[in-house]
Amino acid sequence: MKPTAHASEDHATGLLLAVLAGAGLALLAGCGSETVAPVPPPATPPTQTVVVAPAVTPAPQTTVIGATPSGQIIVTQAPPVGVQPQVISARPSVEHVWVAGWWVWRDGHYEWRSGEWVIPPRRGAVWVPPRWERRDDGYVFVEGFWQ
Question: Residue ranges per domain, the chain?
């Protein structure tokens, strides 16, 4: 049999189809060989660390009851005992005298007021330091004064 144009076209078409089918299979084979990363599991919430603090004894309730007619404040909490250490500078002049510091009540707690060099209001005056006095209903601050 003699080859016809038709037969060679059919052969070319078959060959083309075979090549395309092979290429398609090669593409599919390539896709099948790709590594697919696994989907990570949903993030777990971070663990919580609970720290239990040791029991703390609450500070005694402090109450300012009020003021006396003379304007003195009455506090139920006892004042601190003692003085705070302080560096005393050189005496500025022979007229100056040292007035030691004391505890004051401010903003709901005791604070130390530092001592200082002062000039007395008159010759021979003596400083009587302030103090906290215990009363039936609490502690009352008595102002210092020059005597």
Answer: 1-30, 64-146
What's the predicted TM-score (pTM) here?
A: 0.51
- Residue among 137, 129, 128, 140 nearest 79 (CA): 140
Where in the chain does DSSP place strands (E)?
A: 64-67, 73-75, 97-99, 102-106, 109-113, 116-118, 127-128, 131-135, 138-142, 145-146
The predicted-structure confidence for 4-57, as pLDDT tens digits, reads as follows 555 555 555 555 455 455 555 444 455 445 556 666 665 554 444 333 333 333
For the chain, give the number of residues: 147
